[in-house]
UniProtKB/TrEMBL annotation:
It comes from the Bacteria. It comes from Streptomyces laculatispora. Signal peptide: none annotated. The keyword Transmembrane does not apply. The modification 4-aspartylphosphate is found at D55. The keyword Ligase does not apply. This is Response regulator transcription factor. Pfam families: GerE, Response_reg. Keywords: DNA-binding, Phosphoprotein, Transcription, Transcription regulation.
Length: 216
């Protein structure tokens, strides 16, 4: 089954470019387009895409609020891939905090766009650029530090979280730690539960905000 994608951007040329790149792949299908975040909910419910490629800045409803609404109201929601012009945009960071699963620059090369969609669809690794890591560290809070301290991660769970923060997939973490993939999945689940995180993105943000992982 192909990975199905919904494109959301207020610039028709951007949508056309993304569609051309993605539809050239045999395993990816663009199932719809929207010009604003306000149109996302009905389209997601109707089309059930695997991935929503979402612009951050749009006139009626921005990508941050659209991400929040999708994740709050849609059962089994799609993965959200943030698409933006500037990698150090605070809007991007807020979208990731809201629950977006990855990040893509509009100027990315075609191969990078395709890779990003596939990676987010798989859901086992993150697109978390250095600039966003730095923003997360700068937004660090005492609450984040307290949450990390209360989590009392084991040594192995801490190692898994550090590798997650570097963007490694479960298979890559397993190879690095010389354990089975299922063991890594168990550790990832434990980390999410202890941090009260919905997904990997939220756990990694907590790691940077608390200072548990440095942005460098």
């Amino acid at each position: 089954m192909p990975v199905t994608v919904l494109l959301v951007d207020d610039e028709p040329l951007v949508r056309a470019g993304l569609r051309a790149v993605l539809e050239a792949q045999p395993d990816i299908e663009v199932v719809g387009e929207a010009g604003d975040g306000a149109a996302v909910i009905p389209l997601v419910r109707q089309l059930r895409p695997d991935v929503v490629a979402m612009d951050v800045r749009m006139p009626l409803m921005d990508g941050i609020e659209a991400t929040r609404v999708v994740l709050r109201t849609v059962p089994d929601p799609p993965k959200i891939l943030v698409v933006t012009t500037f990698e150090n945009d605070e809007y991007v960071y807020e979208a990731l905090r809201a629950g977006a699963d990855g990040f893509l620059l509009k100027r990315a090369r075609p191969a990078e766009i395709v890779h990003a969609v596939r990676l987010v669809a798989e859901g086992e690794s993150l697109l978390f650029p250095a600039a966003v890591r730095q923003l997360a560290a700068e937004y660090g809070t005492s609450k984040a530090r307290e949450t990390m301290e209360r989590a009392s991660l084991t040594e192995r769970e801490a190692a898994v979280l550090r590798l997650m923060a570097r963007g490694l997939s479960n298979a890559e973490i397993a190879a690095r730690l010389v354990v089975g993939v299922e063991t890594v999945k168990t550790h990832v689940s434990a980390v999410l539960a202890k941090l009260g995180a919905r997904d990997r993105t939220q756990a990694v943000i907590a790691a940077y905000e608390s200072g548990f992982v440095a942005p460098g």
